[in-house]
Amino acid sequence: MLLIPGISGLALLEIGLRAYKTLTYDGLLYVSGPSPNNMFHPKYGWISPRSAVYQKNDGCYGRGPVIYNSEGFRAPPLAEAERAWPIVCILGDSTMQGYQIPDGKYLPHLLRAELKKAYPDVYVLPLAVGGYGTLQEYMLYQDICRPLEPDLIIWHWAENDPVNNSFLAERSGKTSNNARRRPYFEGGQIVYKRPYPIHLSDYLDGLMILKIANTIALTLQSKPPLQEHLKNIERGWVVSDHFIGLLAKNAKSPLIALVPETAIRATEMFRRHGYRIATYKPFSEEATCKPRDDHPNQRGHSAMLEVLLPTVCQSFPRICGAVSDTD
């Protein structure tokens, strides 16, 4: 007799948590799934939503629509890339997914608008999903970007990538743990693991109730010694270096790394593999929505575009007022 009320109570709690989270964090009310920003995917672990349209209403991040195409990316349909030139792919995680920011106001869309002034058939494809590590970003490049034969690839570096690349580093903490099954690169091959202790199914694990339970469990578990944790993160750096180098080896197009100015080791890693480097300063308070969220807002994305454009100009000089002989 208590089973039905118990299930009903859990369902109401789940809906309440979804409503609270999306209203306070996402700038919209969404209760149809655990998150409006991602969904389960058997290969990548999770993916951004497909064929979704949301109306954002946030005093800091902005107001307006957020539209995902049928593949789950904030770009026109992939079919349009067949007759587009140039084609630009942007790899990254939550910052380049920009799920908080309405269309037209975050870096991939701002870059497209600048390029479109001189190249009306440009296609900019942000292959970015919140919480991704270097392996997952490379997998999207291989599956979606590489077949398009892009004319430029931009890789945005997030400083939590080495943690996201390492199962042991994620398993011993909670700040970079997305509470979903994800691929890792271990022993020269891709393996799938769940870096969280409570597991029901790959679909149910995404529920807000289970995410909170896993966060509590990860907080209460015993932590490894600092030196061991640093070694685990170092394994994540090895994975980053491997796939950043592998893309450089296989790609036929110019490569740009967009890197925080403070990420000196990452800058050196990208440079060693032949990427052109664009670095940006730490975001000011006005360029984020702290303390609620430290992701950049529209001002932050405009600041990143400002430092990126001179490097992009080396591939597409028309946007800088010059015309290449080969254009």
Task: Give an overview of the whole structure.
The protein has 327 residues and is α/β, with parallel strands linked by helices. The chain has a single domain, classed as SGNH hydrolase (Rossmann fold, 3-Layer(aba) Sandwich). 37% of the residues lie in helices and 19% in strands. It is built from 10 helices and 13 strands. The strands form 5 sheets. Strands 6-5-7-10-11 form a 5-stranded parallel beta sheet, sandwiched between helices. The protein has a two-stranded antiparallel ribbon with strand order 1-2. A hairpin with a 2-residue loop joins strand 8 and strand 9. The longest helix is centred in the last third of the chain and has 25 residues. The radius of gyration is 20 Å and the shape is globular.
N→C terminal distance: 74 Å
Radius of gyration: 20 Å
> Which structural class should the secondary elements be placed in?
alpha/beta
Helix content: 25-40%
Task: Give the overall silhouette.
Answer: globular
Please work out how many helical segments DSSP would assign.
Answer: 10
In short:
The chain is α/β, with parallel strands linked by helices. It contains 10 helices and 13 strands. The chain has a single domain (78-320), classed as 3-Layer(aba) Sandwich (Rossmann fold).
